[in-house]
UniProtKB/TrEMBL annotation:
Location of region: Disordered: 93-114
Membrane listed as a keyword: yes
Keywords: Membrane, Transmembrane, Transmembrane helix
Domain of life according to the entry: Bacteria
Name of protein: Uncharacterized protein
Spans traversing the lipid bilayer: 21-44, 64-84
Compositional bias annotation for Basic and acidic residues: 93-104
Species annotation: Ferriphaselus amnicola
């Protein structure tokens, strides 16, 4: 059994060892965190691509290969393509004037007869 004096010394020795273990593994934790984030980003882009209906099977397979064979850059490119192709369509312009019609706010167009 540890006496009061020996308990204090054991605690003083354990603290530097724990400190050394945590900070010696700090680069490992940083690297593991980065790899986890990159993997999560790639999985998220893979699921977004799988749910996309505007691509054929061959296009999806080639984009899956791009995501997983070129990890960060491939996923970023596919993310950009997905974002640009899945933007909502603009509503039809109801104020459009067909050729030959006159608008009450504008004078009629007089063209050249060449």
């Amino acid at each position: 059994m540890l006496t009061r004096r020996s308990r204090g010394t054991a605690q003083k020795r354990a603290a530097p060892q724990l400190y050394d273990k945590v900070f010696m593994n700090f680069p490992f934790f940083i690297a593991a965190s980065v790899l986890l984030l990159v993997g999560a980003y790639q999985v998220w882009i893979t699921f977004r691509l799988a749910k996309a209906v505007e691509y054929s099977r061959v296009q999806k397979l080639s984009q899956f290969a791009l995501i997983w064979l070129i990890p960060i850059l491939g996923a970023a490119v596919v993310h950009f393509v997905l974002a640009s192709s899945s933007q909502p369509e603009q509503p039809a312009d109801r104020a459009f004037i067909r050729q030959g019609e006159n608008h009450p706010d504008y004078p009629p167009f007089v063209g050249h007869d060449d």
